[in-house]
Queue: 2 jobs
Job 1
Amino acid sequence: MDDADFTRVDQLLFDRLYRGALTPLVVHLKDGGTITGEVVRLSRLGAIGGRGTLLGGELCLAEGRDRITISYDQISDIS
Amino acid sequence: MTERSEPKPMSERLRALPLTGRDTSMGKLLRKFWQPVGLAHRLPAGEAKAVRVMGEDLTLYRGDSGKAFLVGGYCPHRLTLLANGWVQGDEIRCMYHGWKFNGTGQCTERPAEPDRKQPNIRVVSYPVHEYAGLIFAYLGEGDAPEFDLPRKSVFERAGALQFARLETWPCNWLQQVENSMDAVHVSFVHHWGRVGSFGAVVAATVPELSYEETEAGIRQTAVRSEGSKRVSDWTFPNNNHVSHPTLETDDPWVDVGVWMVPVDDENTMRFLIYSIPSTTPETDARISEYFEKYSEYDPADHHQELVEHRNVPDDKLVQLTSAQDYVAAVGQGRIVDRTQERLGRSDMGIALLRRIYWREMEAIELGQAGKQWKRLAHDAHMPRQVNEAVA
């Protein structure tokens, strides 16, 4: 994942989690789909400190008992 | 069901987070959980202590039967401190005019009153449960939940060496909780002044961090290198569990549980449990001697030395680790003004933590149940770090 795309998605996620409404997140995917849910797991590579060669992230969204894991490079927007 | 309202302004959200008075959302939230209020070994039978918890003055006493009780702080007659009275049986008698109260808070005797019929006079009382050397109390409304969420199997190991400690820091509880959810601090704070046993296994590099909301709280994983992966198992709403080296490289590692309980909004009791598996008699004796010698320490008693002169303690484990965290948290002031912070994406753990608090506070405001936090079905895996691999 390139730096600009990674930074854009990571910042979108941070802003939505921290400053956004407490309603579940709506993640818009590049393939046109959307996923709605609360973030219950988040892991990132290269998000902080000295950047390594790999940049990427993965988040797991939960809605009720359903869990869906998506990677940063699938995400076009978060609202 | 009441619907969610429009999001509150950020400044309002942030200012509500640290406040724990009985009428505040966070105060109501914290009171839904068992909270430690005293060290068991510092409360012998027949003694009473004044304690302040979330702004409420209370009396913690242990009856002659050995059972601990938590009741109101002042005698309702002339409002003097009840803790200065006498414990008699499982009741406590005020030293001023002899009014006596039982463990439910009911007044049972007023010696100077000619009317022998007791009016319904009572002080508050809260359920108490002793666990792992700590006295917990439930200060919420309604029936207390089962005593389960605070339990961890590492604190229930047969034969383990276990030590309970208390420190009281002059700053808000949330500054300390957020320190737990911010693993980046470890690379700097625990290299401040001097590198001790804890800092030695954590390279001064910024880790990659991942987070998972569990049934019990948040599991935070910090990876600094292939051989350095550190997990903390944080339990809602104010407990953290970490593990780190004890004294020598090949000593068993110590599991540390810390509860950060508001005395009031500007002071916090830190209740700590250290649990070390028993190994050889020699090692057990060495570790026990260490804790006997060094664990009676509170960095607040050394504030000037630490903050003004940067004189860190000689001890490289309990005292140094505590002093380093103290300098960071107390350095933020009594209650940090979060509206002035500049958080970045490295603070994603703080963002997640605050969002969970806001979510649970909103549930309380809307009269909803909120998440039913439960003890983990299986212990979190707490991998050892670099030094253990070397050992």
Job 2
Amino acid sequence: MRAVSYIVAALVLTAIAIATTILYVINFTSYFEKSKGILIKVFSYRKESLLERIAFLYYVVSNDTTLILIYNYGDLDVEISDLIIDGVSIPRSLYIVKKFDGSSLGYIVPANTREPYILEVRVPLVGDLHTLIIVSKRGNSFTYKLGA
Amino acid sequence: MARAISNIVSALIFAIAISALISLILISFHNLVSYTEVLHQVEMLEMKRASERLRISANLTSNTLTVNMTNVSPVVIDVISVVVHDRISNSLKLIPQHIIIPPGCTKSLTISLYSINATVLFITSRGTCFIVVIENGVVKY
């Protein structure tokens, strides 16, 4: 009888140990996958952020519209999330990225196209010197002094 | 027996924990190396961009602008576009180009120009812009 209880006790203990191990492994695996995912995401976000490059080339003012020549010399398309002129955020309806043939690209400045684009801003600019900041969706900001 | 099982389980848990930790360290290291490579690549790009220098001489005769571009920088310059701003009609015109100028070399370019007041931009693949201004038919830099 005592021998049987030893066996039962050992079996119960084994079952508990196996169940605990399975639980631990499952939890640990999901935690590990999550950590790995976050880590990879953080690094890839940083890398993408670095690869965004915008050059301001020239600008033309005509009436209430300013045409700003921009060129993406980075490896990734840049999506403009905000345009700030002299510290004031410009509503999205007042600016747009265009090709030279007049076709609209929305808010995207494509990369690797060997082509400059026109950022058309329908805001009257009073005075000679203005600071323009393009904020990208990845959080980069590109500053340009108009009239400098 | 129970002790043996608990030892095995502990060893198993320890092995899993250690292998996961090592994997995380390796993944971090791999990502860090790849991030550093991108950083280096971007730094090189910016360095090359900053050192781009073109000596431009231009001559305007009967609506034709002849431009000689000499690369006086230590990097190869690729002129990807010429943009003409006609300051009379206030219009912009894009002329796609593919002119590769090795260091120390000179390349010529002819552009038809129908305005005596224009600004001509020579844009490189690294986003540098070189400007020639034409005022009343006279080339100014």
